[in-house]
Specification:
CATH architecture: 3-Layer(aba) Sandwich
Largest sheet: 7 strands, mixed
Bound molecules: 5-O-phosphono-beta-D-ribofuranosylamine
Strand content: 15-25%
Number of domains: 1
CATH class: Alpha Beta
Helix content: 25-40%
Number of strands: 7
Number of helices: 6
CATH topology: Rossmann fold
Structural class: alpha/beta
CATH superfamily: Formyl transferase, N-terminal domain
């Protein structure tokens, strides 16, 4: 059974979807660790409710960026994680962690990358930008994580329409509904590939 770590900063609804899929057996994996940079995040509370090990690791627990990077990498090592999911995690991972887990860390983003990605594109600002540009479709992207925000090889995407009567909130909800299915299907594929290849 593949072991997952999830990093999240705020609400944790994507985290919740992954935990539920694991518990329901639709995803052959177990969430063994949740890390947040925000000690008050709902994401941590959700994980605790499910008996999942949680850690608050941030610039307040580790003011030196290199030591924070090491702490995150060591937490993954100790939990023997196979895959890491960034689900609304608002920080960049450090070099040590990235190089210790090549092609093992994925991020989910609420837009059709490479459009509307990078610094400043998070939460509702993404959907506002899509609407301001007059786009008729948006979507979500799951991609492998590199050193920069929202870059790295794309694993999968899903498209949704932008409707004339949409508000930022209604578009966000449509994208998030699709994004929840996308993260589970992406993980199912990645976990399945790993098991089939026997590594
Ligand atoms: C998701 O839309 C994700 O793509 C983005 O942040 C959002 C997280 O939402 N990076 P939640 O905290 O899981 O509700």
């Amino acid at each position: 059974m593949s072991k997952l770590a999830i990093l999240a900063s705020h609400g944790g609804s994507i985290l919740q979807t992954v935990v539920d899929a694991c518990e329901a057996g639709t995803l052959a994996a177990e969430v063994v660790l949740v890390i947040s940079n925000n000690s008050d995040s709902h994401a941590l509370a959700r994980a605790r409710d499910h008996g999942i090990k949680t850690l608050h690791l941030s610039a307040s627990t580790h003011p030196e960026p290199e030591l924070l990077d090491r702490a995150i990498r060591c937490a993954f090592d100790q939990a023997n994680v196979d895959w890491v999911v960034l689900a609304g995690y608002m920080k960049r991972l450090g070099k040590e962690t990235l190089s210790a887990y090549p092609h093992r860390i994925i991020n989910t983003h609420p837009a059709l990358l490479p459009k509307y990605g990078g610094k400043g594109y998070f939460g509702r600002s993404v959907h506002q930008a899509v609407m301001d540009a007059g786009d008729t479709e948006s979507g979500a992207t799951v991609h492998f994580v590199t050193g920069d925000y929202d870059t790295g090889p794309i694993v999968s995407q899903v498209r949704v329409p932008v409707k004339p009567q949409d508000t930022v909130e209604s578009l966000e909800e449509r994208v998030k509904t699709a994004e929840r299915k996308l993260i589970v299907s992406s993980l199912t594929e990645l976990v399945g590939c790993k098991e089939a290849a026997g590594y």
